User: What shape does this take?
Amino acid sequence: MARKLNLRIWRGDATDGGLKDVQVDVNEGEVVLDVIHRVQATQMGDLAVRWNCKAGKCGSCSMEINGKPRLACMTQVASFEEGETITVTPLRAFPVIKDLVTDVSFNYKKAMEIPAFAPPADLKPGEARMEQVDVERSQEFRKCIECFLCQDVCHVVRDHEENKKSFAGPRFFIRIAELDMHPLDILKNRKRTAQEEHGLGMCNITKCCTEVCPEHIKITDNAIIPMKERVVDIKYDPARMFAGLLKREKRS
Amino acid sequence: MTTEKIALERYKYDVLVIGAGGAGLRAAVEARESGLRVAIICKSLFGKAHTVMAEGGAAASMGNANSNDNWMVHFRDTMRGGKFLNHFRMAELHAKESPDRIWELEMWGALFDRTKEGKISQRNFGGHEYPRLAHVGDRTGLELIRTMQQKIVALQQADKRDHGDYESHIKVFAELTITEILKENGKIAGAYGYWRESGSEVLFEAPAVIIATGGVGKTFKITSNSWEGTGDGHALALKAGANLVDMEFLQFHPTGMVWPPSVRGILVTESVRGEGGILTNNKGERFMFKYIPDVFKDKYADNEVEADRWYVDQDNNRRPPELLPRDEVARAINTEVKAGRGTEHGGVFLDVSKRIPADVIKKRLPSMWHQFYELAGVDITKEAMEVGPTCHYVMGGVEVEPDTAAAVGVPGLFAAGEVAGGMHGSNRLGGNSLSDLLVFGRRAGMGAAAYVKQNSTASVSDATVSAAAARIEAPFARTGGENSYSLHAELQEVTHNLVGIIRTGSELKEAIEKIADIRKRSANVAVSGGRKFNPGFHLAFDLDNMLLVAESTAKSAISREESRGGHTRDDFPGMDSGWRQSNHIASFDGNQVNVRKQALPFMPKELFDLFEVDELKKYMTPEEIAKGGSN
Ligand SMILES: Cc1cc2nc3c(=O)[nH]c(=O)nc-3n(C[C@H](O)[C@H](O)[C@H](O)COP(=O)(O)OP(=O)(O)OC[C@H]3O[C@@H](n4cnc5c(N)ncnc54)[C@H](O)[C@@H]3O)c2cc1C
Ligand code: SF4
Ligand code: SF4
Ligand code: FES
Assistant: This one.
């Protein structure tokens, strides 16, 4: 059953590196991560790759496979042509540490900058009442497994290190949208700060982020576009002062 | 390769939390809110611990779906599930406190699925009398982790406001492996480890350490666990002088994927059977009817017609036998396969396609549909799945004081979550782990805070540091030694074949010898390559831990001459009420693991009286019943 696969792996670190060709056995039904593990166990004991669940649930095994940001544990070898060389490289938007492992600390820094969930001070544990339809909008964004593939593909930072300072990226636009749509969150102005402090304005809706999201979250349609539209509304709508008020009413 | 010399990094904290799964994060929140400075240390990136994989839900008797539910019903269910080997006090605290822990998550931003009245929805699960599992679709573990991860960020934001630095009071050390828990003068003084990224070493000094390292699944060949499940905390605790209780009890989930090989072990959630999935063998026979044990005859249907009626009318029909407790179903599948009635790839068939319309399957079991479609090329709306048992959860773990989660015998050491023992007895109910993480994670945080008030400083001597460092350096210094990948594969073969679902004395004896041999050879593991993100080096340390876990399990299993929950002896098939009075305690003498019996703490009268005497007779000796709960 086993056949040979030509795998081209980027090996190296921050100072130096390049593509290495290897031949490796592959069995029926295997995913790219399996093959990388086989290379590790038989040919390159120190090949670095990040993974955890091997079930598409933790978002650790993000890399670029033939140039496309993907989860290695959810990419079937059989989805490529027989005889085709599969090339695996580290995420391009983040600094490489070693081989397929990159430094994704950018994302954790951005997470700290998003103001936390803010429930009303008088809400008691166990007393919250929310309709399923109202929680579903935020639940879509909470499916995020933080694989950071959307962050990697987004052209605003992919090749523009200088933009990272002022751009939180699609993963955190959905975080802001999630909080903004959260039935219990009462912090005001989340959309405006998204625009003014977290770089929402730099997004020009190319939808690349939505295309790579393994959780099929509609990042652009359901988070970015509605927030952009509302920012415009709020900026020019004389009734904006009522926005916060409406939000509170939703609870009761 | 040689060892690159790198200056030692040192930190001082009030408490170290080893593990960033549900238990570790909940402990860290509690410790910080009690005013302590906390380090959270984990092997993966922050937010990716094994807990993210939990699907079904978290059990808590909030009574939202059925108002008859309360902590007493939950307590009874938990004790029954564990076949009365649970530590009664842990089961009591767990049942009483779970609802508050779930509601608290909601105050931190969690969004559970809702009932029509807008409360938290609760779903049915095996062994729970009422619908009790709070859930978010089939990704409840992710919601738990993300909520607490974000709560920690919120605390860091408050620290930034008050102290000028996000990390002044809580810092996450991600991708750092702890290799040793350090003691001075018999008390906890800190921990030692290495950055996975650079391979450089780190010393933490702290008077309290909370172990929250999760499970041991990777000791076995077929498991639903992530790579982190290498039993590190179990082994670290043993080496630090703590005890492991009842390590023979492992839960084999009846339905893991079996094909293709690369996905073998990945969980197929119990909800598939809950929604109407049936199990058949290669003859097309719905075999579970043959495996209903006497004690369950009044609750489970013995014919297809009644079993099928249950899905529409649960009040007037008995449940289908596919929904028997996990240990029963796992054993039945194992027997069918061994008798030659299995599928081509050594499993049995689990089928929903002939019973539920395709669109309903996709709506109710979305991630299962995806999992099979993407990983096995099977469309479960059209074909049957192939499934078989997979090593899922370890009931055994660090012996702790229930109220404080303090590890017995080691001042300053605490343990919570899957790594702690006692709570689940011989078998855990689905959903009881996530709630366990929250209840005892919080208690460990409180316990550590109280301890640190009395023992506020700790420092580690140079001699202790050098010894810990020498251990890390050793495998690099060797050349031409054993390969850690092949030793790991060998160990998994031994545990799978000899310490698996069905055990016998002679096979366990063989296992103990083989494990000892692998351990001897593992002392000679050599590592190729440098220190920087080197998985071969990482595995060398994980292997050491798995070997101690496997030894504890095999030695406890050979001693327990009965079958109960997650421990089945072919040579001692029955449950023995004499054995119910004993826990097994494993300890480490620096050379090998020793196992002894210890009397089980007995329930006080008020808990004893929650049960009917007739039920207790199935589990307890007449003398115990006569005592009626007074020790
Ligand atoms: C597929 C699947 C589905 C499940 N579904 C459910 C469910 O529906 N309901 C339920 O109640 N339970 C479920 N369980 C069980 C439950 O998920 C686990 O028991 C639970 O998540 C364990 O959590 P924990 O906090 O103890 O540890 P884990 O989440 O396993 O976290 C362990 C942490 O310790 C760290 N660590 C380990 N060793 C070291 C070391 N040496 N140095 C530093 N850090 C270390 C790891 O990096 C990690 O951060 C499921 C389990 C699986 C596998
Ligand atoms: S839609 Fe916006 S956020 Fe998404 S990839 Fe394009 S520019 Fe980036
Ligand atoms: S939004 Fe999607 S692509 Fe982006 S981090 Fe989350 S899961 Fe990954
Ligand atoms: S390893 Fe968890 S998503 Fe791939």
Remarks:
- Residues 118 and 187 of chain A are 6 Å apart (CA to CA).
- The pocket of iron/sulfur cluster (ligand 3) is lined by residues A 59, 144-150, 170-171, 174, 212-215, 217, 219 (CB under 6 Å).
